[in-house]
Structure formats: C-alpha cells, structure tokens
Description:
The chain is an alpha+beta fold. Among the domains are: 4-46 and 67-72 and 103-198 and 342-435, FAD/NAD(P)-binding domain, CATH 3.50.50; 458-567, Arc Repressor Mutant, subunit A (Orthogonal Bundle), CATH 1.10.10.1800; 569-620, Orthogonal Bundle (DNA polymerase, domain 1), CATH 1.10.150.570. Helix content is 35%, strand content 18%. Strands 1, 2, 6, 7, 8, 9 and 20 form a seven-stranded mixed sheet that branches. A six-stranded antiparallel sheet has the order 14-15-16-17-13-18, with no helix packed on it. Strand 10 (160-163) and strand 11 form a beta hairpin. Helix 3 crosses helix 4 (99-111). The longest helix is centred in the C-terminal third of the chain and has 34 residues, at 535-568. The model has no long low-confidence stretch (mean pLDDT 93).
Amino acid sequence: MDTMYDVIVVGAGHAGSEAAAAAANMGSRVLLITMDMTKIGQMSCNPAMGGIAKGQIVREIDALGGYSGIVTDASMIQYRLLNRSKGPAMWSPRAQNDRMVFASKWRELLENIYNIDFWQDAVTALELKNGVVHGVRTKMGIVFDSKTVVLTTGTFENGLIHIGNVKLKGGRISESRSEGLSAQLKEAGFEVGRMKTGTPARLDGRSIDFENMQEQKGDEGGGAFSFMAEHNVDNKRSCFITHTSEEVHAILREGFQESPMFNGTINSIGPRYCPSIEDKVVTFADKDKHQLFIEPEGLNTYEYYVNGFSSSLPWEIQYKALQKVKGLENVRIFRPGYAIEYDYYSPTQLHYSLETKFIKNLFFAGQINGTTGYEEAAAQGIMAGINAHLTVHTEGTTFTLGRNESYIGVLIDDLINKGVDEPYRMFTSRAEYRTLLSQDNADERLTLKSYGLGLAGSDRKDKLDKKMALRTEFKNIVINQSIAPDEINGLLEMKGTSPIKQKVKLKDILARPQINIFDFLPMVEPLQRAFQETKLHRDALQSAEIEIKYSGYKEREKLTADKMQRLEGIKIRDSIDYNAIHSLSTEAKQKLSKIQPETIGQASRISGVNPSDINILLIYHGR
C-alpha cells in the first residue's frame, strides 16, 4: 500500500466525509482515516438534517457538488419546509432521516470515488517539519505521508462522557476517544479550549403511547434537498409532540446534586440554543412545561429520539422523569442521555481557506473549530477539502465565499473574525443579506463557481441552465399576460382578497400575499403549456414567483452588499505593527494583531474594531 497522498482527512464524520469527497472528486489522491468504518457519516445526535438556516447550508453544499443533500434524500423519512408563514428568505427545509441508511449511503458514495483510500485507525500525531505538515502518525505506529492534512476530529479529541457521577473516556457512547493531537498542537502555539455538547436518552418505541401525543406529519407531497433530485421523497414516518410537566421538573431537580452541570464537574461551555433539560428547568424556572419531539430513528427500528430532553443526570433520574411525561408512562429506554466534553481550537487561528495560521498545509473543519451541528461541520468540510486540493495542485490559489454569497461564507467569516465563546450554530439572523441567500437559489449562487473549480459536474450545470431558462419563460408569461375579472375573481374571493373590475397583469395579482403562482396554472393557458409535473418545473415556477414578488427587496439588499464589498477589495499591507498606530483603540490593536485580517472589509467585522478604527486604517492605506 502506497503511503504518500495529496490529502489526508482525519475523521469520517460530516466534515471529514465532505472534505474527502471534494478533494478526491477534484483530482487529489485522498486517504480517509477513521476509527470505525461502520460509523462513516454517523448522526451522533438527532437523526435529522436541515432546519432554520441549516437547511440553506445543506442546499449550498449540494450546489457546490457536495453529498450531504444527496445522502439526506436517500435516507429521508419525513420532509418539512419550516417558516412557510414568513418570506422565502426564511423558508428552511428539514428532513427526518433513517440513521443507519444515512451512514451506509455515505460509505457507499465514498467507496465509489476511485481517488479515496481508507484506513481504520486513530491518528495520534502530525508529522511536522519547519512549520509545515507532512503527514500523520497513527496509533498502530504507521506514518502516512501527505502534502496536506485536514483534521475533523469532532468530539473525539480527549472526549469525556458524563452520566451523573459516572465519567467515561470516549468520543461517543461506547466508542474510544482520540489522544495526542491536542498536546502537540498546543506545543506548536495553538489555543486549545474545551466545549460541551449532549444528547438525550433513546426510547423503545414499542413502549410509547403515541395516541396520547400530538402527531406531526411531514409536508404533503414530501420534498427533496438535492438540486439533482428528479422527484420529491414521500413522507414515511410521523414525529410526535408531548410536554414535560411540573412533576417531571421536580424529579429532575432531585438529581441536581449529582449533575455534572451543577456540581462543578463540567466547566466547559455548552450550546446555548440547544440546552439540556436540566438547564431549561433552571434557566426558565417560570415555565411549567417544555415541548418534546419524539422522533423516529429509522424505518426498520423501534428506536426513538427525544428531541428537547438532552441530559447528563444520573440514568435513574432520567428514566424516572421520562415516565412522568404524557405518552411515556410505560416507556423503556435503550440508553440514557449523556454530556460530552472535548477539545476545540479557537477558529481565529485560521485563514479563510480554513488552513491554520501556525502550521502550513494543515486545515481544520467541524466541531474542533467550535461549531455545533452536522450542517455547519459539513460546510466547513467541503471548503477545507476544496482548499486542500488547491494547495496541492494550484499553489497560492484559495476558494472562499463572501457573506453576500452564501451562509457558508457567513459561517466561516463569523468564526475567523469573531471567534467563539460557545458552540456556534447558524441562524438566518446571522446573515445580513439573507434575502439574497434563500434556500431555493443556492444553485444559482454557487454551482457555476464550483463548476469552474472542477467539482460540480456538467450534469449540475446543465440542470441549472434548464432551470434558469424555464424560470425566464415563466416570468415572462406572468409579467406580460393579462387576466380578466371573470377568469380570476372566483379565485380571489376564495382566497379572501378583493376582486378586480378590469383586466390586470398577472404580476399585479401575484403581488398579493394571498396568491401564489401555482394558483394560475388551471386558468392561464400559456403557463399550462410550459409547465410539466416535474421537480425541475416546480422549482423553476417557484423561483419565478420569488423573483417577481421580491425583486425590489433583493435589489436594495444587493446595492448594500455591493457597497460593503468595496472594502473587501482594499488589501491590508503585510506585517503591520498595529501597536505602532497610536490612533487605534487599545481593543482594536489587540484584536487586529491577533487575527491579522487580510482586507479592510474583514477588519470591519472583527468584534471590538469600531468605525473610527476602520477610518484610521483607510487613512493609513492612503484612502
């Protein structure tokens, strides 16, 4: 077996899988090292992809030629489009997945990429020389040489599991942890910290009384994440909603003295937006109940996930409390919830390419950068994989995305410029240009960029071209076609909006919030002729509606983005001594010296650097 590679990816979770696939599909020879070949693409926590802003990220990964959307569709058992009552910038697709099918599909796809080799082992050290990485050393003592290395160790680096007073060394329950890398990187000058995440108990569905819960069905007609999907995936399973109660909370409080969250055992930071149930009971003491989602783990298992009940309390307390939840009175559990602490590296130590500043040709992606979530990890993975390949084959070239181009750009920009003081999770509110970044147009924004790199294939480009041509045809019909009162008034009255008295353009009717473009299909003959019942046609018609309804908002936001983009074109001189620029604030000197921004635009987004500091930098650069 040849031990020399272009790219070595350490870890085969969501970040590692996307990194390996991207680099290999672009032409690099890749070695993917994982501790367990049966856990490739494992869903460590809930069996779901997407959600608020996360669904947009999955669509962006897919548009770039990544696999997360394809794997999601192949394993989907329920689809929902969240935030339908709001504007399209807020619409966020979410899928419930079969956990086992998800992992097996990832492995199948990766094994069918010729350029990827696999090795089951743990990496204990990097091979370094003069500040450059040259490979890795494994627990078996084998050295693999490589021109670049992508680290995606997730929660495994020095992972420590907590269940009440019980502490177990591991990266996931019943899985050993990784050791060695953190100590080596700390010695190399990296800032290493600890973070925490958690997961709930898994339930035996045969013991759940679903009749006493609220059923939550998927969207009618199902859905799909990948732009390459030919049809929507049908819903196969429902989720269910129930609630905790004061009685449940009282039982949970009985275990607080043994809770590692409250007795000082855990000092690391957990995700604020996905708190444990004991956190909720304390933080929201005025609430007499909290919502729980009972989610199926797959089609061929009785295992269920209790979304909203993450816990590190003693297992007996968890079990006793769950039995007081409506519908879970006779529940049996497969395993208790737990918290896990792990090492991460401050992301301010990275370039936009996700290459580290301290060690050349070394890239970080995923939870080790302080993020939480499969989607955030996968996004970093595909970007790291692309840039690792470019480092090897086109030295000096990097691929980055701006905040006005993608949620992936927002994610990486936030990490590098602001750092993290808690596990970072993406929200639509983090994107100031979110009107431009809706989930339906990720292919328009990113596929041509990826095609230019050689990652997205011609099949993706051809499908995008067809969609755009269809959208233009649909738009022209709606913009130019008029409709008479006797043709449309029945629909308008049914929809609760005022009738018309004379012929008007379809676009004027479409401007009404009660009306959508699909309402026109039965009555507008040119639309009927152009439209076919395919996913491509439905996507194109929906896109035409969004363009017509929201073009004004998008144009205004684009103008704002273009103005801010000018600052991205002003490069900062290398090796500036910020401490010597006396007019800068003390905080600005410290932050600029630490992060070393590459452009004025990047400097303007660093927390603690204010507008007057930016003006001083502009003057310093002769502006």
